[in-house]
Every structure is written in C-alpha cells, then in structure tokens.
C-alpha cells in the first residue's frame, strides 16, 4: 500500500475529522507541545551544561542528572502524544514532509545521546568516565536546537 | 492616538519588507524565538517549582536563582529581539490580533509578579533559603509565574489562528 493511500485513509478516519472540526483542538495541542518542549529543553540544557562543566559544578554530577532526567523522559512522552494527535489530524501535511522525517531522526539521535550520557550516572555509582562527555553534552544541546528548528520548519515545507 | 500610520511606516522599511518577503527569514526568527522561549520557560519553571517547594539540583534557593537567572535573561532578550523583528514585518495586523494583545498584557503581569517577588519575599531570602516548603509569599509568586508564562506561550501560539 502506498503512502498516499495510508494518508488518505488516516485523513478520512472519524478521529482525524473530529480533531480538525473542533477548531480549538489543534492550537491547544500545539501549545501543550511547546510547553513540553520547554520542559524537555530546559531540563536538557541544565543537565547538559552540568555535564559540560559549566553550571552548578559544586553539585555532584549524579544528583543533577538524576533530578532532571525524569522530567526529560516525561516531557518526551507528552511530546510524542501531542505530536501523534497532530499527525492524525493533518497526515497530509506531516507524513510526506521531509523536514518532519529529519526531525524524527534528530529526536531519536538526541534522546539516544541523552541516554548514553546519563545511563552510567543513573545506575552504577562512580565509574570513571573516559568518554568525551563535555563535547557530547554540547552536541546534545545543539541537537535539541536542531529539533526545534525542524519542528518550526515543518509548517513551511512541501 | 492612532498607531496604525506609525506601524505602516515601520512595515514599509526595507528591513521589514525583507523579513516578510524572504522565504526563510521569518521561519528562522520563529525558530530562534521558540528556542528562546524554551530556555526562558524551562529555567523559570525550575525556579518557580523550587519556590513552590519542589526540590531542585541544589538546596539553596538563592544559589539556584543565581545559577539560572543569567540564562533566563539572555534568552528573554533573544525572544524580545526576534519578537520585535517579526512585529516590524506585520505590525498593522498584530495590533488587531486579540491573542497578541492578551499576550502583551500577560507579559506585563508576569513582569509585575517578578517585581513584587523581588521587592518582597526575595529580600528576606536569607531566612528561607534552604527551607522547604518556602513561605507562602514565595509560593504564590512561583505559582503565578508558572501560570502567567504558560499563558504567554498559549497566546503566542494562538496568534497564528486568529
């Protein structure tokens, strides 16, 4: 089955039509999406800056990372859920959009990096770190910025 | 006083026309605006939640504020600058947009709320710096700030739909 058939089917589902028919749903879902972005990016920024040795260096690394990681994970869940609603509502705008797929690749990359950087700290105590943590922390911040830029650009591509 | 002629003049400047007509400048300004918003609300929320009594990455509320506020301010300035540039491009329509006007109103209220906090509970922060939960004045300020800034974000998104 080709992608255009899937899109046409999804577009015609009662759920998709219902979301589009109630005018306040899409802007409200988008607003919640942005609030969740601020939570994810804010938590990423603070803990990545700690990993990079810039912020709160007098506090133990483990404590800072452990404090913010659950917020990142929960915000990601909200983002995936609100994102899914937007896909269901307007599959024709999203699923054929190259910027959207680039954004998805970047999200997977950024969150994988987040886990790679944090997992040793969330689990076993005090393993000696040999990886280039600081550079990777900056990369993580950069990747999240790229995700945000792609997200805004979805509306301008096709 | 009618502000429209002034906004029209602003909108007719070469800079405004460039922002409006170049395909990529406006979305780029929007993207930077959103990154700025994420830093402003992300860092403010950490402080506000601490004022509500949610533990943060350090115990001292004062040191937490000193950790994060510089980032909040830089990001806020970025938001104001990108916002002003977008406003230049279409000022005449923005001032007729209800969501935009309410957003500006809430921004003023958020500023006032911050002012009240800094002149009130913040002056006595030495007394409650490491106390959980913080005094009620601080909790009210934290809650109002979370709500007002969330309102600013919602209204910002609604501008495009009105």
UniProtKB/TrEMBL annotation, chain A:
| Superkingdom per UniProt | Bacteria
Q: Which Pfam families match?
A: DUF6644 (PF20349)
Keyword hit for Metal-binding: no
Entry keywords, A to Z: Membrane, Transmembrane, Transmembrane helix
Q: Which InterPro entries match?
A: DUF6644
Keyword Membrane applies: yes
Q: Which residue windows are transmembrane per the record? A: 34-56, 68-88, 100-117, 137-155
User: Which positions fall inside the DUF6644 domain?
Assistant: 29-156
| Name of the molecule in the record | DUF6644 domain-containing protein
Automatic annotation (TrEMBL), chain B:
What does the UniProt keyword field contain?
Membrane, Transmembrane, Transmembrane helix
Give TM segment ranges. Answer: 32-52, 73-94, 100-119, 140-160
Per its UniProt entry, which superkingdom is the organism in?
Bacteria
Enumerate the Pfam families for this protein.
Answer: DUF6644
Where the record annotates domain DUF6644, the positions are 29-161
Identify this protein by name: Predicted membrane protein
